[in-house]
Amino acid sequence: MKGGVELLLLLLLWSVESSSLSPPGKPVLLGCRSPEKETFTCWWKPGSDGGLPTEHHLYYERERLEGTHECPDYRSAGSNSCFFDRKHTSIWVDYVLTVVASSALGNVSSDPLKFDVMEIVKPYAPENVTLVVEERPESPHLHVTWKRPSNTDPRSGWVTIKYQLRVKQENNNDWKSYTSGTQTSFSLYSVSPGAAYLVQVRCMLDHGSWSEWSNSTLVKIPNYVQSQRPFQMLVSIFSAVPVVAALCVLVTKWKYVKLCLLPPVPGPKIRGVDVQLLKSGQSEDVLSALIVSQNFPSAVTRKDQMEDYVVVSDSSEWLLPASSKSQKKKKSLIIPAGFHLDSKLQWKASSQAEESRNETSDLEPPQLPSQKQTFSGANSAAANLHTGAPEKPVQPLANNGYVDIQRQESMQVDYSRVKEVNGDDVLILQKETLSVDVQRRERRGSEDYSRVKEVSSDSVVLLQRQNDCFCKEKGNHCCTNQTPRIPHVTGPSSVCTDLSGHSWTSEDTPSETQSGTSSQL
Amino acid sequence: MVDRVAVGAVWPVLVGLVFCGELTTVDAAPLCTNAQAGCHVLSLANLFDRVIQHSARMHGISNDLHSEFELYFLPSKNQIGRVSRNCHTSTILTPNGKENAQRMAREELTEVILKLLVAWRDPLWHFHQGLAHHHDFNNFSSNKSLEMSDMVHELRKGVQKVVEKMQTLGIISNSISSLASPEVLLASNSAEWRLMKDYDLLYCFRRDSNKVQNYLKILKCRIVPEHGC
Questions:
Q1: Which residue intervals are annotated with compositional bias (Polar residues) in the record (chain A) (predicted)?
Q2: Who among A90, A96, A116 is closest to B97 (CB)?
Q3: CA B229, CA A145: separation in Å to the nearest integer?
Q4: Longest CA pairwise span in chain A (Å)
Q5: Full-prediction pTM beyond 0.90?
């Protein structure tokens, strides 16, 4: 009996010795965490138990709290943890925690852990992360929504939650992060149709640590672009048709289009210049046509240049077939623009001429309506030459005959240089030519020309027969002794014969007969 | 004879009171009335948002500075003997949790905020001075400390404006003691903070700035909850 008990004890001792039981190993405090800044939990890792059942106890000290206290709750947070509820949690005070492992062979304390709850704030991940694909024809986007962690309380202002989310494509490994601020929703616009995306969200309280990432949510963007293609094609076709049509029209009717868009530029037009004259190419004519000089030259008649003649006839033979033209066309006289209506411009004429001129006064011509054409501008002056002394017979003109105008007493203003009759009273003469006594002209008006029926060729002027009775009717001094003046027409050339207002040039060759110049003034 | 002495004593006292009264009112700038031209009237919610943002920034800076100091000094956090940290503001009673803060009256909470801000003005200024002379620290820290010191000053003025606005709106009573209260003055003049080491000072300020931020947010969501609570 005694031997059996001793044997058992020996066996026990031997077994104990051989199993090398030891006091418990030192536990390690892993850390603490406060998910909402109102409670916190601490975890530790126990050391080896040394073969014996060991117990762990957590003790803490706190600032502004006397004594050492033990953990209020070992269970709520799982094994090897300690949960501090609201009653036991104080912010902005230091905690010092220690875990003691105790077994039959002794106690071992861990290293103390000192912290302030404000430093260990780390929330849980956001909840209910939902992804919705917003399908809009132009821009599909991904709308992400989530909920704050359930235990936090931002409404009282105790904590401010900030969120962050990250996105990546299914096959990719590149996450792209976005900050959402305090909003619990976010819209992602950079999504491509047909791809699948993974989204995760996390949050942070005040200045604490970030939470873990939420679970990944997968979403696939549908591929709906194809359904839009026929529509787009139709639209593009319909818009192209009018464009093509417009192009065709443009190409075929190019000329009209060109005319419409780029109208031809009208040629230059110089007042007083006859294009035909320029074309005919007589240099002298051109020069004279173009010269518009203010300085009227001294009124010196050069005898040699006053070889003008005018055909005066009162027979109707001289009615040229072009008479009809004269009715319609306006004849014009071109007068040098520098013509000064100036009494200075005098005829230097023989005294005889002077006298004769003085004697004569312009007949007040009856303006025969059929013949009358008003002077107005270069192209509209009608040359009505007043013939004087219709009673005086005029020899009919031969083909190239001239009339000795001198026969007619009525003398004559030299109209050779008349270039233009401007208005009733104004004659504009050429530069080199003699001046006409315009003043007298003025006084008498255009009556002097009233007799001209037609100027039909270079040297032919058809005058109207002046009826006495007509004169009488008028009751003016047209029927006095005064004879009308008849312009000298110098040279056979370029008496105004047509509408274009040729000048009556005076540059005739000196070889012109002087016979007709006795009527010079 | 007694009368003359009394009068002689009263007169300078009166003058002194008037003078002091003027001094104390200098700090508080008048709020705009509605009709003043060029004066933008801020709502109470707006004012609250501004001071809260300000306090958040202040706390962020103090956090950064504290981390920097930890890098340099690596103090042992687990010294058992340092359970009771000797912050010079320990004398000011502050709520330690959400419920406590919510239970506190508005006036009390506001006073606590102001007391804290007043208490930190001088210590931070001296801390910055000390840092500027110390060439161990880089300019970054020195700038941050200056910024921190300025911010405390500005934040105090901002909170005062909020208080005035609340008082004009009748939200809180006028029972908040003026800033010239003796206990406050004592707190800032106490030499306790001079004994604190730089690291401890930074730690204490980090904590107090967090308190100020939280208290302001609680006040705001209690008084003007419609904006962002």
A1: 369-382, 491-521
A2: A90
A3: 19
A4: 201
A5: no
